[in-house]
Amino acid sequence: LRSARAFEARHRDALVHGLLDAAGGIDEARRRDLIRCGLDSAQASVRRTALDRLCELDGPEAASHRARADTNAAVRKWRPRQEELTTPSLLAS
Fold first, then answer.
1. 80 Cβ contact list (under 8 Å, min separation 6)
2. Which of 3, 13, 38, 72 fits as disulfide partner to 44, beta carbons 3.0 to 4.6 Å?
3. Count of domains observed in the chain
4. Residues 83, 33: Cα–Cα separation, whole Å
5. Would you say residue 9 has pLDDT above 90?
6. Measuring CA to CA, which residue among 82, 80, 81, 83 is closest to residue 67?
7. Is 47 helix (H, G, I), strand (E, B) or coil?
8. Domain residues for 36?
9. pTM for the whole thing?
10. H helix or E strand, kind and range, residue 77
């Protein structure tokens, strides 16, 4: 993550986005650093992914509060992901 700061902004954001997608395998302290970096990204998609990870650690209220304070409308519309409910189908084979 330290070496990512040397990249151009768009390359750094792409790297951070990928790391956020794979963040489940790293310890909490490093994940929080990564989330902080993602929330500071210029790209809204990276900030939304960082909000997903923040929600996993601190809960939906903390992430929603952070989302509402964002300058980008798409980020402000962010909502925690709902768990998919699987309903058995009578038509399933």
1. 52, 55, 60, 63, 64
2. 72
3. 1
4. 26
5. no
6. 80
7. helix
8. 3-76
9. 0.83
10. none
